[in-house]
Amino acid sequence: MDNQAQISAEIAELAAGDAGADVPQPRRDYPPYRSSRLRHPTRSMVRADPETVELWAPCFGHQDVDAAEADLTVQHPGEPIGERIVVAGRITDGDGRPVRRQLVEIWQANAGGRYAHQRDRHPAPLDPNFTGAGRCLTGDDGEYRFTTIKPGPYPWRNHRNAWRPAHVHFSLFGTDFTQRLVTQMYFPGDPLFALDPIFQSVTDPKARERLIAAYDHELTTPEWATGYRWDVVLTGGHRTPEVEP
Amino acid sequence: MTTPGQTVGPFFHFALPSGRGGELVPPGRGDAIRLHGHVYDGAGAPVPDALIELWQPGPDGRVARAAGSLRRDGWTFTGWGRAATDAAGHYSFSTLRPGATEPGRLPFFALVVFARGLTHRLFTRAYLPAGADQAGADQAGADPFLSRVEPGRRGTLIATPDEHGFVFDVRLQGENETVFLTFPGHGES
After folding, report:
1. How far apart (Å, rounded) are the C-alpha atoms in residues B59 and B99?
2. Which of A117, A213, A193 is nearest to A153 (CA)?
3. Residue B144 belongs to what H/E stretch?
């Protein structure tokens, strides 16, 4: 198995090759992330103009999402272990328009860095009071808000002594289908950033910054939870708003 | 500036697929069809930890505007579903046959593919083959988008009929690699 020095050298080489280039999204062909090697297309994407159905996104409503699902700390009889946090922000499209009443889903490891998933073999404790999945609908200004536990970093087998920086997975929909996004939110100042080939698959340092939440004392709740703000910008919508299909 | 994507990772199952996520209509209903297939990697091995999302119009070509995809009532067609691949890399949807949304275009299922090892989602389309009324019609002639796709790769966008509906395999890499799409504003190549 490769060691961190080998992976870090590959990360540095690919970063140098992309320096100054406009690459807003992660490279799909990113060899330091070993499991990408056989899973990235080698042919160019084919340009398409969105057709009618792609100019719309699926609708979600209150029958899909219970308001309590935005609080990941109240899903079990007891309090989960760890640092209680609020994560909140706004979802907008590339033109700055809020994405209203749309679904946001999150999932994450617990405070010890363990997922409530049968394939996670990391020998850290499961927390009987924390599952780590939540969802909400955005408000009229595109805003969302979750209460959860700060996830821990965890090891994986990309290379010897590989550790993922702490992160929360986010799944987002826009107002048209072509805006669909799945990504990860990170916490400021994580010492594992430089070492992680998934985070570094976004080779543009300015683009990587947009994956990192900001500590926000305005979101911090007295004697209850610290707060992080993370805004998401989807690609521009293609549809003239408010036209019925 | 746009927020970058990141891989869905290996541990999405407990959060993303809902119990009947792939059942846009209950399987076995009179007008239900199946859309299913495998996801393969560049070595031809099945991908057991991929997630496929489906978005489509109804048989009349209308885009559904009904909520309820996460908690289905069994009656409302929402046009959207998601299904994870199983240990054999197989996914399956129970749905309705999509209609054409515009005259002169072939109907298609719009798909998004996520997987561990895939750093950013992939868009594609599973077109219905030109129907009986167009027997022998060249697929390229049947749709202006398909006509622009390199002929040798066009077939990767066309679903194959089977007993209950259609088969659509996704090949992430290699021989017969699926045609994936980029839309204006995505900044991809």
Report:
1. 4
2. A193
3. helix B144-148
| A–B interface: beta-carbon pairs under 8 A | 248
Of A98, A108, A132, A135, give the one whose Cα is nearest residue A237.
Answer: A98
Q: Annotated catalytic, A154?
A: yes
The C-alpha of B183 sits at a distance from chain A's nearest C-alpha, in angstroms, of 5
* β-strand partners of A108: A168
Please name each of the domains of chain A with its CATH number.
4-34+53-233 (2.60.130.10)
How open is the CA angle A49-A53-A55, to the nearest 5 degrees? 60
B134 vs B31, which has greater pLDDT?
Answer: B31
pLDDT tens digit string along A67-119? 999 999 999 999 999 999 999 999 999 899 999 999 999 999 999 999 999 89
Measured between CB atoms, does A162 come within 8 Å of chain B? no
Instruction: Compute chain B's Rg from CA coordinates.
Output: 16
Query: Closest to B117 (Cβ–Cβ): which among A39, A117, A132?
Result: A39
Q: What is the mean pLDDT of chain A?
A: 95
DSSP letters, chain A, are: ---HHHHHHHHHHHHHHHTTS---S--S--TTSGGGTTTS--SPPEE-PPPGGGGS-----TTT--GGGGBTTSSSSSPPSS-EEEEEEEEE-TTS-B--S-EEEEEE--TTS--SSTT----S---TT---EEEEE--TTSEEEEEEEPPPPEEESSSTTEEEPPEEEEEE--SSGGG-EEEEEE-TT-TTGGG-TTGGGS--HHHHHTTB-EE-TTT-BTTTBEEEE--EEPPPP-SPTT---
d(CA A236, CA A2): 40
User: Would an 8 Å CB–CB cutoff place B117 in contact with chain A?
Assistant: yes
Q: Quick one: pLDDT at residue B144? A: 93
* Domains (range + CATH), chain B: 33-171 (2.60.130.10)
Rounded to whole angstroms, the Cα distance separating B94 from B22 reads 6
Whether residue A64 and residue B145 make contact (CB cut-off 8 A), yes or no, is no
- Which tokens go with A199? 């985070």
| B42–A contact, CB cutoff 8 A | yes
Indicate if ipTM > 0.85. yes
Please state, in angstroms and rounded to a whole number, the distance separating the CA atoms of residues A36 and A16: 20
